[in-house]
Amino acid sequence: MADAPTVLKLVRTVPEEPARRPSTPARRLTRRVISVGGGKGGIGKSLISANLGIELARRGKRVVLVDADLGGANLHTTLGIDLPRRTLSDFIERRVVRIEDVVTATGIENLGLVSGALDHLDAANPRYAQKMRFLRHVQQMDVDYAILDLGAGTHANVLDFFLVSDHGVLVLVPEPTAVENAYRFVKAAFWRRLRNVASVYGYDPLLRSVMDGGSFRSPVELVASVSERDPDAGRNLARHLAAFRPRLIVNQARTPSDADVGQAVVAAWRKYFGLEMDLLGTISYEDDVWRAIRARRPLLVDRPEAGAARAFAGIADALLALDLTARTGVGS
């Protein structure tokens, strides 16, 4: 999802740390960052982050879960482990040099955890330089997948973490308020991306002039108006905005109509915003899920035979297929 100029802008504003000799070969061609976000709390982001990480790890992928719900971290509880001695706070406050220094074993092969920051009041609102250092280190981790479990809402930090990922995964439950909040979240992420791209390329005055000149029902109309004034800017904006393609997971589906919510959201996003969204899968509501949560055990470990657990295989298949397409260009 992240475009190169936006990432470069984020990274280059922070002084680089002294270079260190890598202990293992670079793997940037295969590494992916997945951010799991949503418009409200209690929709299962941590459940999905943890179990998706387990599913990918079982397939031989090297995975690190990063609890990026700053100030409200609980991913260690979802995994059934005690709060680690070292957490993200140690990295943010530079008590350790590398983010790898706070990775904790989970007891599951190929799966590590960076537990979230809990021990100081500023954890939920890190300074800009702290945030940029965090993002840079996550992008440089020697893993196949770094999965960021984000906090709820549309705070700037949450949106930035969502936008710099290769896969921004939007979670919703099939309830009217949750669907409304999901739309609000993805719209906020889109407009933040638009402003980032405009800032990187110096389009801010042009964009303000176009937006002050009228109202637009969709980004397609906005880009068309930009193109009328500056065709090169219009083509560039269209290219970057087309790369904004959220991935959707519907959680806690109880009925067949609930299972249809995902396709309806994808269709509405295409109709009203003129942009694409990928439905990764739907997870059914089952008693086995809350039993696993109550037992402080990951669903895939505690009840792997459950239908909700099997859904993660399909979600992982969909993500791996997207990555294969990105590497080979087939289907693009």
Please explain how this structure is put together.
The structure is a single chain. This protein has 332 residues and is of the alpha/beta class. The chain has one domain (4-12, 31-322): P-loop containing nucleotide triphosphate hydrolases (Rossmann fold, 3-Layer(aba) Sandwich). Helices cover 48% and strands 14% of the residues. It has helices spanning 4-12, 45-58, 75-78, 88-92, 128-139, 156-163, 176-201, 204-212, 219-229, 231-242, 256-259, 261-273, 287-294, 299-302, 307-328, and strands spanning 32-37, 63-68, 103-105, 111-114, 145-150, 167-172, 247-253, 278-284. An 8-stranded mixed beta sheet has the order 3-4-2-5-1-6-7-8, sandwiched between helices. The longest helix has 26 residues, at 176-201.
In N-to-C order, the SSE pattern is: HEHEHHEEHEHEHHHHEHHEHHH
Count of structural domains? 1
Described by the principal axes of the CA atoms, the overall outline is globular
The main sheet orders its strands as: 3-4-2-5-1-6-7-8
Largest sheet: 8 strands, mixed
Could you name the key traits of this structure?
alpha/beta; 332 residues; single chain; Rossmann fold; globular; 8-stranded mixed β-sheet
